[in-house]
Amino acid sequence: MHYRGRQIDHCASCGEIIDVSEWHPTKARTTDGETEIYSFCSERCRNQWTGR
Ligand SMILES: [Zn+2]
Q1: pTM, rounded to two decimals
Q2: How far is the CA of 20 from the centre of ligand 1 (A)?
Q3: 13 CA from centroid of ligand 1 (Å)
């Protein structure tokens, strides 16, 4: 996966800064034919986010 040179990202659920050089839970969502990848600091945040 490429992040266009970015070394950090933010958790889509809580906004926590995460280091993308390490593995983190992600979730892909397709809207109008465009796929976006969301990153999360933990499984808990991903579950919380997808549960909404
Ligand atoms: Zn989080």
Answers
A1: 0.74
A2: 13
A3: 5
Distance from C-alpha of 6 to C-alpha of 15, rounded to nearest angstrom:
16
The rounded Å distance from CA 10 to ligand 1 centre is 8
The candidate with the shortest Cα–Cα distance to 19, out of 2, 38, 40, is 40
pLDDT in tens, 2-21: 555 556 789 999 999 998 78
User: Any idea where the domains of the chain sit in the sequence?
Assistant: 8-50
> Hey, is 22 helix, strand or coil?
coil
Is 49:43 a contact under the CB 8 Å cutoff? no
Q: Which residue has the tokens 């465009």?
A: 34
- The alpha carbon of 43 and the centre of ligand 1 are apart by a number of angstroms equal to 8
